Structures are given as C-alpha cells and as structure tokens.
Here is the input.
Amino acid sequence: MRNVTLTKTLRDQVKGATSETDRIRALLVLGTWLAGADPRAAGAVADEGLAAARGSDDPALLATAMRVHAQAWLHTLGPRATYEELCDARARSLGLADTVGVAWCDHFIGVALEYLGDPGGATVHLERALSGFVHTEELSGQSWALSALGDNQFLVDRLDEALALLERARTLAEESNDRLGEGIALVHLGEVHGKIGVRAAGLGRGAQARSAFAASLRSLRRAYEGAMQSGDVAREPVALATQVLPLCWLGRYNEAIIVAEHGLRLAGALDLDYRSVSALHYAGMAYLATGAVGQAITHLQRALALHEQWDLTYDMVEVLRLLVQAHELSGDLTAALAMHKRLLEAELRLRDRVGDREDQIAVARFEAERRSEVSEEAGARLHRLSRVNRRLAGERRAMERLAHTDALTGLANRRHFDAALTRLLVQAELTKENVSLILLDLDFFKQINDSYSHVVGDHVLAAVAAELARHCRASDLAARVGGEEFAVLLPGISAEGAATIAERLRGWISELDLTQFAEGLRITVSAGVASAAGGESTVLIAAADRALYQAKTQGRDQVCIAQAVPVDG
Here is the structure.
C-alpha cells in the first residue's frame, strides 16, 4: 500500500498556514517534494507558489519560487523551457547571498545542461553546487549533487568512480532522512552494479557477475520499497523496470516479464516520457529474452522514438543493439541491417561525445574562471571558490578512499580487495605471472573480546593491520576481509615465496607488544597461502581458505600452503 502521508501532510500545512507568507513557503516545500516525487502534480503547485510569490514583497521568496517552478517543470516541459528561469533564479539568489539557494540552482542548471548536451557546463555547475552544499553543510544537497556527478561518471563507463560517488550520496541521503535523494542514489547504484555485472560476465567472471547482479537487485528493490512508502511515484517505475537487466542475466525470465509489465503500467499511469522510455526499454529487453520478438520490437521502437526526441545517445545505443538482435531473430534482415547502420552512427556519436567530454569540461572550467576575473571582487570570489574547490577535491578523494577503506584499520575493505583480486588475476593470465594470496585469521580472538572488551579487540585489530601495512610492497595490497580475518595480495610472487612472507608476518605479529592495551595480552595468527596464474577469484580464495582451515586444525599459529590452483578453476 503506497504511503502518501508526506504529500498529505504538506498539503495540510498549506491549508493550515496562518499568513500569506507561511502559505507561500508551504507551497514551495510541497512543490519541491512533488517535483521529485510526482511531477504530474508539481506544476500546478509550483505555478500557484510562483504567482503568490510575485505578489509578495519578499525577494527571497520570489527567487526560491522561481527555482522550484523551474525544477517542477524540468522533466515535463524539458530543459530548454526551464533553463533561463533557473539562471534568473540563480542570479537573484546570488544577489541575496543565499548560498544554499545558489547551490540548488547550480544543481538543476547542471542537470539541464547535461540533457542539452553540454557536459562541460553541467560539470562546472554540479561541482559548484557540491561546493556550496559542502560549505553550508547541506547534506541533502550534497547527496543530490554527488548522485548527478556519479551518474555522469556512469555514462562514460567510469564505474568505480561512479560507485564511490553514489555510495557516498546514498549515505548522506540516509543521514539527512532525504527519501527522494536516497531513492535517486539507489536507482543509480542499481544501474552501476548491473553494468559491472554485464562487464564481468563478458570477461567470463561468473561469480563476480552474479554478485554484481545481486547487488543491483538489492539496490533497486530498496529504491522501489522506499518509493512506495514515501509516495515517490516518479521513482517506482524506473526502480522496477531497471530490475529487468539483472533478472534476465540471472536467467529469471518470468520474474523479469512480471516486473517489466508492472513497470509499464506504472509509467503509463504517470504519463511522463522520461519514465515511459525506461520502462519501454527494459520491457523490450525482457520480451526479447523470452522469445516474444514482436512485443519486444514494439516496445523498443517506442523507446527509440522517445530517446531520439530527448537526444539521449547513450540509452539510444543500448536500445538499437536490442533492436538489431530482435530483427535478426524475427528473420527481417533488411530491418536488422537498417538498425545496425543506425547503431554504428549512434556509437560513433557516443564515442565522439565521450572523447570530447574531458576537453569540454576543461574549457568550461577555464571559461568560468576567466569570466570571474572581470573585476577585483570577482577575482576575490574566484580565489575563495578555488580554495573551496581544492578542499572539495580533497574531500571527494577522501570519499573515494572511504568507499574502499576499512574504517577501523585503514586497510582496504572487502570490496576493494575483491576488485583488486579480480583485476590482478586478469593481468596474471595475460602475463603468465602468479598472484599469491595470504589469508590470516587471528587465533582465539573472541576470547580477547570476551575477556578484555571489544575496545581492546579493536586496538588489537588496528595493531595487526599496521604491522601488515608496514611490511607490504607498494604493489601489494593488505585488506581486512572479515571480523578478524585479513588478506594480503602479492602479485608476481610464487606460492613458496608467499609462504615465506606469511611465515615472517606470523612471527612479527606474534612479537607485537600489546601490553599497552591489556596486561599480558598476546596474539597469534594462522595463515593459509594459495597462488594462481589467473582463473576465478573465488577459486583462489577457496584454496587459501582451505589452507587456513588446515593451519587452524593443526594447532594454530602456523602457515599452510594450498595445493596448486588450476587456471581453469
């Protein structure tokens, strides 16, 4: 059952306002919510709020009303119809020294420019928005800006960067209790995990692909459930439809059809092109996977027409690929050839756009700085902005590190470890050099927590992590992969060499002075070693884990080596 309490509550606040100013403010809050959650209803509310604000003597209210009005119509009238109003609202907010208002205008200007094919201008405005939100500690705004920047990284296949930005966006949305922001981040995360799964499947990495598709489904289902609970009807169809990709790759075709049809019904009820196109795209994918070629072609042709209307080249390429397959399966080779020609043209446009993107961003940044130097005051603003941007760049790097770092120990986390191991094994197959893995588990660690406290246990984990990091080469990777379990990746090292290193690590850890944390405290580790020149990461991990288990069962505080790991698993 959809929870529409928030929309009803906001409408009640409009009705219950005791002054015209309070009524206008309540209208703008309602319009902001509906712009993201239900654009069908947002336009009328934003129109009413703008008309009322024009009749007031409050310039701040008018600036906010103009921004909300443009935001409400952005996805219905399109970016061209709302861009000028957003720029006007930004200028008014800037004149009022409303940093948060300027940041929100920059955010939506950035979104509009991305749709209009200006990635340079989009990036400049989104980075300005993020800078303003960070400066004012506006967590919700940071989440929205990071989601937009993460989506832009996704469009150019920078999946690791996209993942880090979107995970941070989701966390900030949760912290600020921003249901809309959380839904946006979760949908984008679902798309990124899905793309990672497709890429892994193409490389023959079945386990990694399945893991990515499962993560995609988790994110998308959370997004759908959250949308249902909050009344975010605009998010529901895309959170449903996007599940089709991982479901099809996992072979769950009947479920994919059910989800696709439900997404189509929800999108049709919304009557919004930008939601319908996604539902049509994925419904076509589902029908094609089940052999219903005629239905697939019908849906994909409609999706293609909408993509062309919005000039969404990235999505157009995906739809054209499916149409080529569908026409080939139907036996209509003439139509398949025509679609293939259009696909090649679209791929060339996409390649050119991606190739030019960094240059356009650099030029846009330069032009923004040059315009800011027109006056001494503008130069001062540029200096302040540069300082903020440098700090922001550091914070973004820190966010990316956090996304790959274990908070307690500072080592790589499990996600970073999994990605690094997969990458190293691919390189190993190409170079014919071994990758060795050491799994280390602290002996009787539970007794330390039970006897001394979890605080002391945390100190022990940090001390062991520091010892591992101290003895790693620059090319090695030390990670915390479980509660008291650590891993060390050693590229270019044989099993025998890794066993020697593991034995040294075992000795050094056993000699750690831990008495500063508790009298008489000492720790030992057991280690398992495995090595391979390629193959599945799960096979190498399982081999090292068996060796670790052997070390445990033989009395602990020792190193065991796994049997040779075949490349084919």
